[in-house]
Design goal:
By secondary structure, the protein is mainly β. The chain has one domain: Sandwich (Jelly Rolls). Helices cover about 10% and strands about 40% of the residues. The protein has one helix and ten strands; from the N terminus they run ββββββββββα. It has a five-stranded antiparallel β-sheet, with no helix packed on it. Strand 5 and strand 6 form a beta hairpin. The longest helix has 12 residues. The chain starts with 5 loop residues before the first strand and ends with a helix. The mean pLDDT is about 95. Bound molecules: thymidine-5'-diphosphate. Thymidine-5'-diphosphate binds next to strand 2 and strand 3.
């Protein structure tokens, strides 16, 4: 599953007036965008996320500043640097994710394939490991 977590480079149409980055649902990213939220003002020692989702897929983009995303599929772990406004990371469903090491100016834009539903979040790591083990069987 971890191999599905991929950095995506978005088309840029900047000119002498400034930068413009385009993210079209179902074109530049592999889902229709149903929800947008963004995270800023997190201190560098804060770890956010710490969950997996049964249904939601995400794309995370540091539109300003930098952060890191650690993904974990229960077997493998990988760390991705989000450090450019035209690069995002695609996260499939059922991957455990931690977002951390936020720069002071970090604005982390999160696009999701689903509306918010607290029930589809797995927030307990041991439960997550149980869930992925069952799926692999
Ligand atoms: P949380 O999922 O803990 O944030 P993160 O994963 O980014 O660290 O969300 C913080 C609070 O906001 C929590 O009470 C749930 C709520 N929330 C919504 O109501 N809608 C949303 O789309 C999101 C992402 C969170």
């Amino acid at each position: 599953m971890i191999e599905k977590c991929k950095l995506i480079e978005f088309p840029q149409r900047g000119d002498e007036r400034g930068h413009l980055v385009i993210v079209e649902g179902n074109q530049d990213i592999p889902f229709d965008i149903k929800r947008v939220f963004y995270i800023y003002g997190s201190d560098r020692d804060v770890v956010r996320g710490r969950h997996a989702n049964y249904n939601s897929e995400f794309v995370l983009i540091n539109v300003a500043g930098t952060s890191k995303v650690k993904v974990d599929d229960g077997t493998n772990k990988r760390v991705f640097n989000l450090d450019r406004p035209h690069i995002g990371i695609y996260l499939p469903k059922l991957v455990w994710k931690d977002m951390y090491d936020f720069s002071e100016d970090s604005v982390l834009l999160c696009l999701s394939s689903e509306h918010y539903d607290a029930e589809e979040y797995i927030r307990d790591y041991d439960k997550y490991i149980e869930v992925v083990k069952k799926i692999k069987k």
